[in-house]
Amino acid sequence: MDTFGDGSQGAVFDCLFINWVSTITFDWKVISGTDENGKTVFRHEYDYAGKLSLGGMMEDFLYETADAGAGEFSYFFMMPNTSSITYHLELRYGNSIEDLIRYNEGPHAYWLQVSRWMRMRK
């Protein structure tokens, strides 16, 4: 918390992938990630688990995998952002819903990935 403050003075978010992921691919219900060498870091099938709110700032879609060993890739929280300048997808992933909804506390404090490094498969 000392590193980031409480957010009252504004905040800068880290918009890079975490957990050694370089590329994330969405292929219908399967979400996978590879490292910078193209090696698979994770690959799981996800189902819609409901709506979720990020600290009252954004509310959108939570996806969950049934794979018991998914660890930090157990949940994907995705928020389409339709600003007047650009359309992009913001997301967070992790192993705890409680951590995903807290934007300025916990292991994912001030981390929110932006879609410019993602690709969608047809």
Account of the protein in words:
This protein has 122 residues and is mainly beta. The chain has a domain of 73 residues. The chain is 4% helix and 44% strand. The chain is built from one helix and eight strands; from the N terminus they run E-E-E-E-E-E-H-E-E. An eight-stranded mixed β-sheet has the order 7-6-5-4-3-2-1-8. The N and C termini lie far apart (41 Å). The relative contact order is 0.22. The C terminus is likely disordered.
Question: What labels would you give this structure?
Answer:
mainly beta, 44% strand, 122 residues, single chain, disordered C terminus, eight-stranded mixed beta sheet
Topology of this protein?
Layout: E1 23-27, E2 30-34, E3 40-54, E4 58-65, E5 75-82, E6 87-94, H1 97-101, E7 113-114, E8 118-120
Parallel strand pairs: 1-8
Antiparallel strand pairs: 1-2, 2-3, 3-4, 4-5, 5-6, 6-7
